[in-house]
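Task 17 of the worksheet. Students: predict the tertiary structure of the chain below and write it out as C-alpha cells. Keep your answer in the requested format; marks are given for formatting as well as content.
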Amino acid sequence: MFIRCYGKVADEPYTMPYTGAKVYSLEELCHYIGNNIYTITEEFFTKSLVHWLKEQADHPKLADKLDTMITNQNKLKDLVVTILCACDYYKEHEIRELIRVIDEIVSLPLHEKRKIRADNYMRAGLYARSVVAYRKLLNGAYAVNFTPEAYGNILHNQGIAHFFTASFADAERDFKEAYARNHRAESLNHYLYLLLMQGRVEDFEKECIAHGMNNAQLEAVRNRFNEAKAHVQKHSIDEEEIEKYKEDLRKAAESAI
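Model answer:
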C-alpha cells in the first residue's frame, strides 16, 4: 500500500513491539495505529518510540510532548490523539471514530481487556506469551465472567497458540473442549485436523461419526486436510515458498474468535 508522506522519511525504521512491523514516517505510524487500534495499549508508547520520533522522523516537539505524557502516565486516548493530530494523515471525523473505539475498549470489563491482550500476543506470533495469558483467563478468577461460548472461544485461541508451539496434544485437547462449549464448526474441524496430522486415522473416523458426520462430510474434512498437506509437501524445497507458507501460518492466527 502506498502512503503519501509529507514529513521526513526516516533512514532507520521504527519496529513495532510484538508485530515487528516497520514504519518509516509519522504518516506510516498513524496508518499503523489506525489500522491496529484494537491492539494499541499504553505499552505501545515507549521511550524507544520517543527516541525514533526525535532522531529519525525529525519530530522533536512531538517527541518531547509524548515523552512528558508517558512520564505523567497520561490516558491511552490522549497518547493516541497526540500522535494522530501531529500530521494530516487522518481527517477529523476519522480521528473521532478512532477515539470512539478507544472509549469502547477502555469501558470494557477487565476480563475482556485481558482477552484482547492475549489475542494480540497470539496474532503477533508471541505464542508462548499468549498461552500464559490464556491460562490465566481460563484457570484464574476471571473465568467465571465468561459465558460457555466465550470460554470455548478462548480455548480455541489457546489451541492455535499451542499448535504453533508444537504442543499438538494440548492443542487437540483445547479444540475438542472448545467445541463442546462453543459448538463452532471451526473448533471441531481444527480438532479433527490435528487427529489426522498425528496419523490417528481411526480416532479421526470415530470422532467424525460421534459428532454426527456422514461419510460425505467425513471425506470432505479429510480432503481439505490432504490438500493442505499436499501444498506444504509440494513447496517444501522452494525457500521462498517456505517463507510464504510461514507467513500464511502466521496469518492463520487471525482466526482468533
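Marker's comment: DSSP finds 13 helices and two strands in the chain. Confidence is low (pLDDT under 50) at residues 241-246.
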